[in-house]
Design goal:
The chain is an all-beta fold. Helix content is 0%, strand content 45%. The strands form five sheets. A seven-stranded parallel sheet has the order 1-4-7-9-12-15-18, with no helix packed on it. It has a seven-stranded parallel sheet with strand order 3-6-8-10-13-16-19, with no helix packed on it.
Length: 278
Amino acid sequence: MLFRSPIFGESTGGGGVTVSVRVLGGDGGSTSSSTAVAGKGASVVLVDAIDASTTGGIYLSQVAEAGDGGDGAGGQAGDALSELTKSGNYSGLILKTQATGGWGGSRNFSGGDATAGGTATAVSNAGNALGDSSAQALASGGLGGGGYIANSGDGGDAMAEASADTSLGGADALAWAEGGGGRFGAGGGNAGSGGYATATATATGSGNDAVAATATAIGGSAGGSLGGGLAGQGSDAVARAFATNSGTADVTATAEATGGGATLASTTTSSASKSPMK
């Protein structure tokens, strides 16, 4: 699902303009047969799908949420991309992008694999020559599909990049990324591993105003396993923050990365059978 024509807002009198869009991908259909193919979740791609014109303040928010894969025979998850770039002469400029990967479809039949969670990519690039500039990018990888008497899926990777640049005001960049979690393994199937996370924030000011860059990356957690399968692996996370100005005002760069946690495997015996649910 790709949006090509921008949704546009305008103020000819110099008033503030807010434009937002949120697109949700459809979920794939499920199946109750081991020989059937579960449906794919729809991917969502938003690249400069919104825009605005004014000499006043601008706030743009662009959200992409991919669809989940169908359950039963492990339908493929949708991926999400939200990318937004805007520059000009405004009293203030705020850009926000958000991307969420779909959940992988579960597999409830012997053998084979559930599917991985969808990837998520969020990118915001804000440039302002007259006032404050702010860029936010938030990305969440999808959860892996659960497996029963089958291997569970890995979590989806997440990547967030935020860049804010200003000539006369303050600059603020925030990037947040979290990898999707690997799903629990049951009935002897292996658990899924977590998705990778990377976040990069860059804030640059040419004047003498405060500048701040904050990057947070959280690796996806691993799934545990019951019934003799292998536990998954927690994933890595990388965060980078860069902040620069040309004056004596405060400059703050904060980067925090947390690796995904791991869960031990264990073996149990039970007469009950349970299928994983989302």
